[in-house]
From TrEMBL:
SMART domains the record matches: CLECT, FTP
Ranges in coiled-coil conformation: none
Location of the region described as Disordered in the Swiss-Prot/TrEMBL record: 542-561
Name recorded for this polypeptide: Si:dkey-83f18.5
Organism annotation: Hucho hucho
Listed SUPFAM superfamilies: C-type lectin-like (SSF56436), Galactose-binding domain-like (SSF49785)
Amino acid sequence: MKPPPLTMQWNLSLCSLMGVALLSQMSSTSTVNVALQGVATQSSQFSTANVNNVKACNAIDGIPNPNADNGSCTHTASETDPWWRVNLLDVYKVTTVVVTNRDSNPERLDGAEIHIGNSLENNGNNNSICAVISNTSAGQKHTFQCNEMEGHYVSVIIRGTARILTLCELEVYGSRAGHCSSATCLLHDEYHFVNQNMTWTEAQCYCRLKYTDLATIDNVEDLDRQMKAVHSGYTEAAWIGLKKGDWKGEWQWSDNDCSEGYFNWRQDKPNNRGWNEDCVMMTNSSQWNNSNCNNSHVFICYDRLNSSGTKFHFINNTQMTWRDAQMYCRENHTDLASVRNLTENEEIFRLASGHSVWIGLFRGSWKWSDQSNCSFRNWHERQHDNTGGNQTCAVTFMNYSGRWGCQKCDEKLPFFCYYNKVILIHEKKTWKDALAYCRKHHNDLVSVHSDEVQRWVKAQAKRASTPHVWLGLRFTCTLNLWFWVSGESTCYHNWAPGNGIVMEDCGKTGAGRTGAVEKDGSHQWVSLPDTVELNFICSTSNRRESEPSSSTVACTKMALP
Ligand SMILES: *[C@@H]1O[C@H](CO)[C@@H](O)[C@H](O)[C@H]1NC(C)=O
Ligand SMILES: *[C@@H]1O[C@H](CO)[C@@H](O)[C@H](O)[C@H]1NC(C)=O
Ligand SMILES: *[C@@H]1O[C@H](CO)[C@@H](O)[C@H](O)[C@H]1NC(C)=O
Ligand SMILES: *[C@@H]1O[C@H](CO)[C@@H](O)[C@H](O)[C@H]1NC(C)=O
Ligand SMILES: *[C@@H]1O[C@H](CO)[C@@H](O)[C@H](O)[C@H]1NC(C)=O
Ligand SMILES: *[C@@H]1O[C@H](CO)[C@@H](O)[C@H](O)[C@H]1NC(C)=O
Ligand SMILES: *[C@@H]1O[C@H](CO)[C@@H](O)[C@H](O)[C@H]1NC(C)=O
Ligand SMILES: *[C@@H]1O[C@H](CO)[C@@H](O)[C@H](O)[C@H]1NC(C)=O
Ligand SMILES: *[C@@H]1O[C@H](CO)[C@@H](O)[C@H](O)[C@H]1NC(C)=O
Ligand SMILES: *[C@@H]1O[C@H](CO)[C@@H](O)[C@H](O)[C@H]1NC(C)=O
Ligand SMILES: *[C@@H]1O[C@H](CO)[C@@H](O)[C@H](O)[C@H]1NC(C)=O
Ligand SMILES: *[C@@H]1O[C@H](CO)[C@@H](O)[C@H](O)[C@H]1NC(C)=O
Ligand SMILES: [Ca+2]
């Protein structure tokens, strides 16, 4: 179905000129424990024959078993001010922290402080306090409300001499505070769980026919909405859109920083001469060189500071593979270094003083079915490393907070699809060029005819790089009316005060009047000349009727249920 031409639709109802609808605030509590994908560390480790019973990561293994001898609790040595910390690998607004105390010696946890914040100063224990644990009962879960405190780290410290810190589980619930600006990170409006057993390829075909594609998950909010899409009580593994293959993904930063644009490759680099050169080091000339990830080098970590600044650390007392260096940095600091501009490149170069050092840039061979190159990963431990050659398709484990693992692609499993109804285009275009772009590549410039659509539009607009984002809204001087170019007519409105009224300055400026949504604030609509260059939002069609991809063709030949 072709969208209607850019002319006034006669069925436009006059009631669309009345009233300003109030935005219903979207509020949802996260059901995903974001600590599970973090990296834990502690001030010391109790000396014991079985280190598995005392490791820092036991508090984020997803098992709230309170028996300290059962391999799922942490245990420091007896010392002054023992602490434990989880690096969430991104900044979250934390709503609650749930602590499981051990079943013996529970009083040891009394007086422990839970800190949340962005600073690693004093091991994270100078961050603000969410709660002080008191009157803890043996083996019980205790929930602390943290009122959306923002932080990259959650830490627990017991102050005093000869103290021992043991945690059997620490869960963190909240939503991501950051705003990903990567053009290829799409917002997946709707996830659908399909409870039919199919191979990964069959599932991909099914999703592309019925929805947009197999599920892509870009962040913890996506993960949360994906988990909530299961209504049948299914608790096993299900396919998502991630697949490993003989291809190379985009170069991406370990810390998932969506910043783009700065590269300082050596001449003729990166190259694929060595197919296995997937990790990047800064050479002794300050330029970058891709190299085998299994090689051992010294490396550069960074600390996230409380403000937006960073501090680099040169780790020169040990050489590690890129993966081990990444793990070291995530435990002791924030992550392997990201290099975002020339200043930072120079800073790292000086610090490395003539050594070649690992930095946080790498590329993987996992790719999303929809070709988006978002680097969010949610693997269960090192599941993706021991794939044994054949397990090259990713599943999400429903009984494990959605964490990911690998399976053979020809196994038959239920799966998740997503459906995108609107899409933010990160290019800057005039209103007319934006309209042409949407009609060529998608469906149309978006029409906002309900609270629901306004919510999707708001979520997309937040990630724009311009202060306003075009909508399919236009004013006609002849009729003195605002109308949606898609021809949809409704009474729904969300104009900012003073906008959307009739008697616009017709003809005075020579430019037509068109409507855009605010990137920030209350995301209301404003009237702007159509010559302004803005990001814009297209609506998508449910089915891809034009130019079916080869896989869609293959799919139609397959007997689908
Ligand atoms: C130890 O953990 C296992 C598996 O979680 C469980 O079956 C067993 O009952 C636990 N034992 C104790 C003493 O908690
Ligand atoms: C951090 O905490 C330590 C120990 O409590 C204190 O001595 C120091 O002054 C604190 N630093 C800042 C900047 O607050
Ligand atoms: C401590 O907790 C127990 C059970 O959770 C409760 O019965 C008791 O009243 C609490 N004591 C104090 C001082 O809060
Ligand atoms: C999918 O396969 C599993 C295991 O073979 C089976 O238990 C389940 O009932 C199947 N589900 C459907 C919807 O056919
Ligand atoms: C790195 O080492 C692992 C394990 O030793 C091996 O499986 C893998 O193929 C190696 N990767 C490269 C790129 O050499
Ligand atoms: C830089 O490293 C390369 C290769 O490791 C080496 O050949 C060269 O001599 C080094 N240059 C300096 C100035 O250290
Ligand atoms: C760049 O990497 C390649 C492959 O790892 C290596 O042979 C070469 O010496 C490196 N060059 C420099 C200047 O470090
Ligand atoms: C960051 O920390 C410094 C001291 O370390 C403090 O003076 C400053 O107020 C902090 N800034 C924020 C935004 O917390
Ligand atoms: C390692 O780094 C430290 C401080 O950055 C420096 O003092 C030391 O000399 C370096 N060691 C080597 C072997 O480069
Ligand atoms: C960093 O982590 C390693 C373990 O990965 C540990 O051995 C080392 O002591 C830590 N260093 C610091 C400064 O905490
Ligand atoms: C380089 O990037 C850092 C981190 O984003 C920023 O604080 C700094 O101002 C930038 N410097 C320049 C010269 O752009
Ligand atoms: C991969 O699958 C083939 C065929 O099913 C099988 O023969 C082979 O042993 C498998 N390899 C591994 C490492 O599991
Ligand atoms: Ca545990």
